[in-house]
Amino acid sequence: MSMSTTEVAKKEMITKPEQGTKGSYIRDKFMQYFLGPIIAFILFVALWQVIPLIIGMPHYIFPKPTDVVNAAISDGSLLWEAVKVTVLESVIGFVLSGVIGIVTSIILASSKIIERSIYPYAIILQTLPVVAVAPIVVIWFGAGFNSIVVVSFLIGFFPVISNTLMGLNSVDKNMDELFSLYNASKWQKMWKLRIPSAMPFIMAGLKVSCTLSIVGAIVGEYVAGVGGGEGGLGYAITVSAIQVNTSFIFACAIAGAILGVSFYLLVSLISNKILGSWHESAVKNEK
């Protein structure tokens, strides 16, 4: 049976407000989250372009945004190859730091004696300057890819182990007593209570580690980078500094920043998918 004219009119009246509400919702979200950063970015780039012109500063001292863009375009193939190498090194270093950091944290959290014996050395490892550790890594693993991955791993390792261990030791006391009441073993508590409860802490550590892995890879490339198409952003920056190609240095630095932001957004997306709607942080992000 066909719908009557009155039913069609009612349906249109219901649909139009919904469409208007959706449009206003998108507009409000854009105004709230994106408009401010976009305006700030435009003002920053405009000032960056104008100030060197007013001061009369040469491009090899402080390049303008147009100089940076031209350098990125003219040496685009070199920049792209450097980005690919750095991405590969960073991803491997991040995965190693995540896996080894989480496994180490579980082992430390399983015994207070082990935690008190080993965790202080993890803190000491974090306090060592990377510049001092990197040459030793090069001696042990040789110059090139392996050493850079190890440096990236070392920088990203501590945030994972620190946050994960904190989460594993922050289990709700009532839930722990409930598991004990049902005679749950130590490892049953670990897999079914402590690790799920620590997931927000684990994801927070991974968010920090993913950005630090980029920094570690670039720092490693300064010390252990090699040329011949195998050099990453750190090696490209080193060569450009020798050539006083400041515009390309800025282009490499911006590329590294974009990589760091992209890594962070990707891990944040995975975090929201894993936490879903059961944790407060994910629920707040969805609102």
TrEMBL record:
<keyword id="KW-1003">Cell membrane</keyword>
<feature type="domain" description="ABC transmembrane type-1">
    <location>
        <begin position="83"/>
        <end position="271"/>
    </location>
</feature>
<feature type="transmembrane region" description="Helical">
    <location>
        <begin position="198"/>
        <end position="219"/>
    </location>
</feature>
<feature type="transmembrane region" description="Helical">
    <location>
        <begin position="33"/>
        <end position="55"/>
    </location>
</feature>
<feature type="transmembrane region" description="Helical">
    <location>
        <begin position="148"/>
        <end position="168"/>
    </location>
</feature>
<keyword id="KW-1133">Transmembrane helix</keyword>
<dbReference type="GO" id="GO:0055085">
    <property type="term" value="P:transmembrane transport"/>
</dbReference>
<keyword id="KW-0812">Transmembrane</keyword>
<comment type="similarity">
    <text>Belongs to the binding-protein-dependent transport system permease family.</text>
</comment>
<feature type="transmembrane region" description="Helical">
    <location>
        <begin position="87"/>
        <end position="109"/>
    </location>
</feature>
<dbReference type="GO" id="GO:0005886">
    <property type="term" value="C:plasma membrane"/>
</dbReference>
<protein>
    <submittedName>
        <fullName>ABC transporter permease</fullName>
    </submittedName>
</protein>
<keyword id="KW-0813">Transport</keyword>
<dbReference type="InterPro" id="IPR035906">
    <property type="entry name" value="MetI-like_sf"/>
</dbReference>
<feature type="transmembrane region" description="Helical">
    <location>
        <begin position="121"/>
        <end position="142"/>
    </location>
</feature>
<feature type="transmembrane region" description="Helical">
    <location>
        <begin position="248"/>
        <end position="267"/>
    </location>
</feature>
<dbReference type="InterPro" id="IPR000515">
    <property type="entry name" value="MetI-like"/>
</dbReference>
<dbReference type="Pfam" id="PF00528">
    <property type="entry name" value="BPD_transp_1"/>
</dbReference>
<keyword id="KW-0472">Membrane</keyword>
